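Bumping my old thread because nobody answered last time. Still need a sequence for this structure:
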């Protein structure tokens, strides 16, 4: 993966900020709306395109997607060939998982609204989790090699 297409390292912190802003906003909206809160299916209502519910839905979905995107595709402090290979492998596994979930939900559910959100969040979330786990394992193995026996 070419590093020229990655965001600078500091943009990861902006991404985490956007993700952590999204969580309390959704919690407050759910508490405030009570039983009238429809979750992410608000955007699929036929009542209008620019209703307040739909605008809130689009705003929060874009906030979360932008945050995940910045976290997933920002450079590491030291971006070498091994990190690039881990990034590529993690991206490949994320796409595999995404299509497995897509096929499974298409076959076993009738709810088209949640399929969209699964396809929006799962690849980025799984990529971030797997990539961070592989970096953690790499760092742990390097520390074990350095320590004298």
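Sorry it took so long. Here it is:
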């Amino acid at each position: 993966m070419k590093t020229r297409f990655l965001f600078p390292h500091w943009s990861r912190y902006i991404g985490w900020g956007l993700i952590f802003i999204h969580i309390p906003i959704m919690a407050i909206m759910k508490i405030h709306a009570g039983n009238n809160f429809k979750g992410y299916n608000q955007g699929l209502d036929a009542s209008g395109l620019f209703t307040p519910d739909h605008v809130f839905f689009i705003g929060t979905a874009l906030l979360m997607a932008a945050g995940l995107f910045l976290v997933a595709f920002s450079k590491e402090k030291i971006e070498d060939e091994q990190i690039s290979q881990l990034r590529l492998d993690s991206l490949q596994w994320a796409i595999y998982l995404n299509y497995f979930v897509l096929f499974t939900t298409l076959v076993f559910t009738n709810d088209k609204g949640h399929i969209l959100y699964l396809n929006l969040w799962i690849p980025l979330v799984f990529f971030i989790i797997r990539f961070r786990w592989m970096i953690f394992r790499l760092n742990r193995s390097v520390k074990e090699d350095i320590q004298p026996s």
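Residues 66 and 137 are 27 Å apart (CA to CA). Let me know if any region looks off to you.
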